[in-house]
Design a protein that fits this description.
heterodimer, A: about 425 residues, alpha+beta, v583 fold, four-stranded antiparallel beta sheet, 15 strands, globular, B: about 70 residues, two-stranded parallel ribbon, about 55% helix
């Protein structure tokens, strides 16, 4: 019999999350910095998935990414290549990274590099393209390709040089500040992006880039409130990695979706995925779209909720209900409920309307199963067909079956036979 | 006994535990009521409840072994 006290294992796991210090240190090219990245590999959001089971937006993003990478000349050619077995698909989560929505990334894409120096750990995420017709929502038109190439040729190099010209940026402190300013850093990143912009702008102006490129970079960052999402995600990922693979712990270290399945991983169940069909997101749709247009839940961005941000910190961001639906009272209730399924409260992330109570931190598999309360996630909604893009935003929960299966595996792994 | 009799002669105030529809019915009839969110452990799912019981029994053994 394993002599492990779950409470002790969970306390240690959550303490490690609290101690983790994510800092933004630079920009790299995915093929050069992401572990085991290669030319014919496409990283994607969510648990593992094969081409035949991919949803429309995931397929659209794969097709666009293959054209962007020069592996196919047209979307039609890309579709054939994707189905041929000559390209590989692996989850970002198995390569120390995360990707919002479809989350598809290829070797030549620029990526943010986030580090936890004490732990000697690095995580990665692509740069945010903005809202609407973008690759991460499955769009692959010419405007998407033109933007991605500009991000590779101008945005990435300018940011890389700018970051080298200034001290690294403490993301944990920046997120804590953004929560005081009405963000929850999943679907509301306005304050966080503004704070990042303040940090980066002087350094961007000191780069050797042409003035017109510097101006375009500043305008691009300023015009996209979601710029910071692609930093809150790898920051959350690196903090949660501190809790990963601790014997006996029932803390959830990953929640993610690929548009077909929702997957979770548990600290005490090394490298194992527990999946079930992803739910439909309920929320506010852009004009002209209906519920029939919506793809099931998609993206690695639920890593923010796993770390006590996003839906777990909605009480800090009442204005977000104008984007994802519901009332301010609902936002308060979502956060309050999450304390019932978490191990502790964050020491760094505080929620002003709850008298600066720490955000709910450390989802406990046992508490989810005991109470039946599911983690609350807020998220964007992709069109179910490839090539269209975002159609709205809303609220969703994971399927309970993920947690039930994980509990069964945990019991099988640790508990003595009856 | 007197206090029990008063129960039936004074206005009823209800604390409803569990099914919210009972609470809604009382409210629609103008009864003063508060709702307590409650559901059986594991949402009444016998399989999950049995798994949680195994975890509890194991933890009891672990703690006993440390005493």
């Amino acid at each position: 019999m394993k002599r492990i006290e779950i409470q002790e294992a969970n306390r240690a796991a959550v303490a490690a999350i609290q101690q983790s210090q994510p800092v933004l240190t630079g920009i790299g090219i995915a093929g050069e910095v992401v572990p085991r990245m290669r030319k014919n590999l496409l990283l994607h959001a969510g648990p593992p998935i094969t081409w035949p089971r991919m949803s429309g937006p995931m397929r659209g993003a794969v097709m666009g990414a293959l054209v962007y990478e020069g592996l196919a000349k047209t979307p039609a050619e890309a579709e054939k290549l994707a189905a041929s077995g000559e390209v590989a698909f692996e989850p970002w989560h198995e390569h120390d990274g995360v990707g919002p929505m479809a989350g598809v990334a290829t070797a030549s894409m620029p990526v943010w590099i986030v580090e936890d120096k004490a732990a000697k750990r690095r995580t990665f995420c692509t740069l945010n393209e903005g809202l609407g017709k973008v690759l991460r929502y499955g769009a692959y038109s010419d405007e998407v390709m033109v933007r991605l190439r500009w991000m590779r040729d101008v945005l990435g190099p300018v940011l890389r040089e700018a970051l080298a010209l200034r001290p690294e940026i403490n993301l944990k402190a920046l997120i804590a500040q953004a929560l005081q300013m009405g963000d929850e850093v999943h679907n509301r990143n306005r304050a966080a992006t503004s704070l990042l912009f303040r940090d980066l702008a002087p350094a961007i102006l000191r780069t050797r880039a042409k003035n017109e490129d510097q101006l375009k970079v500043l305008e691009f960052l300023n015009a996209n409130d979601h710029t910071f999402l692609n930093l809150s995600m790898p920051a959350a990922k690196i903090m949660l990695q501190a809790a990963e693979w601790r014997e006996g712990s029932t803390i959830v270290t990953t929640m993610t979706r690929n548009g077909t399945d929702f997957g979770i991983r548990i600290a005490g169940l090394r490298d194992r995925w527990f999946t079930a069909p992803a739910n439909i997101v309920k929320g506010l749709l852009f004009p002209g779209f209906t519920a029939q247009d919506c793809n099931p839940d998609i993206g690695d961005s639920a890593i923010t909720e796993t770390c006590g941000l996003g839906g777990f910190s909605m009480a800090a961001a009442p204005a977000i209900v104008k984007f994802v639906g519901g009332s301010v009272a609902d936002a308060m209730t979502y956060t309050q409920k999450m304390y019932e399924i978490t191990e502790t409260e964050s020491e760094a992330f505080q929620i002003p309307p709850l008298d600066f109570r720490g955000s709910p931190l450390g989802i406990d598999l046992l508490k989810v199963c005991e109470t039946g309360i599911l983690p609350q996630i807020n998220t964007g909604i992709a069109h179910r067909e490839a090539g269209i893009g975002q159609v709205g935003a809303g609220l969703v929960t994971p399927p309970m079956a993920c947690f039930e299966d994980a509990l069964a595996a945990y019991v099988e792994t640790y508990c003595p036979k009856d | 006994m007197a206090s029990l009799n008063n129960l039936f002669t004074s206005p009823v105030k209800v604390i409803n535990v569990g099914l919210a529809s009972f609470f809604a019915d009382l409210k629609s009839q103008g009864v003063t009521a508060v709702q307590v969110d409650w559901q059986p452990p594991a949402g009444g799912n016998a399989k999950v409840a049995a798994l949680l019981d195994r975890v509890r029994r194991w933890q009891t053994l672990v703690r006993a072994g440390k005493e």
